[in-house]
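Lab notebook, bench 4. The sequencing result for the construct came back, and we need a structural model before the next group meeting so we can plan mutations. Quick request posted to the team channel:

Model the 3D structure of this chain.
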Amino acid sequence: MKTLTLLACGAAMAALGAPALAQSKGDMTLGFGVHSVMPRSSSSTTTAGQITVGDNIRPTLTFEYFVADRIGIEVLAAWPFEHDIKLAGAGKVGKTKHLPPTVSVQYHFVNSSSITPFIGAGVTYVTFFDDKGTGALAGTDIDLDDSWGFSAHAGVDIALSERSAIRLDARYMDIDTSAKVGGAKIGTVHIDPLVVGAAYVMKF
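Done. Here's the predicted structure in token form:
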């Protein structure tokens, strides 16, 4: 979070006097960033006990096409996130990787400053892979089912020029997955992460 704070301060200084990043119908933007997936702190209770999923940071890529002035459809992609899985009383018992492609409809507000807020909502499809048992479950098959869920998005674009900006944003993703250990279903794991990060966005 310290890195994100420094990025925000630097971007704000660079943006002094910069024009707002106006978005018109037909515009497209491409964003290159880094985001942290932070599953909610409350853990899921399954037949195996309480399960928690760890945080992870990975590079991200966004593409947005504006179907109308200030209204865009955004697609989020990322390098696979990797998470440790912990079981209460047993410590780290597994690992998994996932990809969370997300499609959102977004509204970018109008203002005269170089800092432009936006909000959005959409749907996330999460696919899990490379599920592995470790520690007490080393050698045991772990399987997490793919999942669809609602996604909410909000952030600000800090303009660097008429065609570039630093974006600071946060998302909530409704991610629940059915978990199996050794082929036996043990319940639903509620991941529901907050995803926060920063990106460089350019318009073309």
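The radius of gyration is 19 Å.
Will bring this to the meeting.
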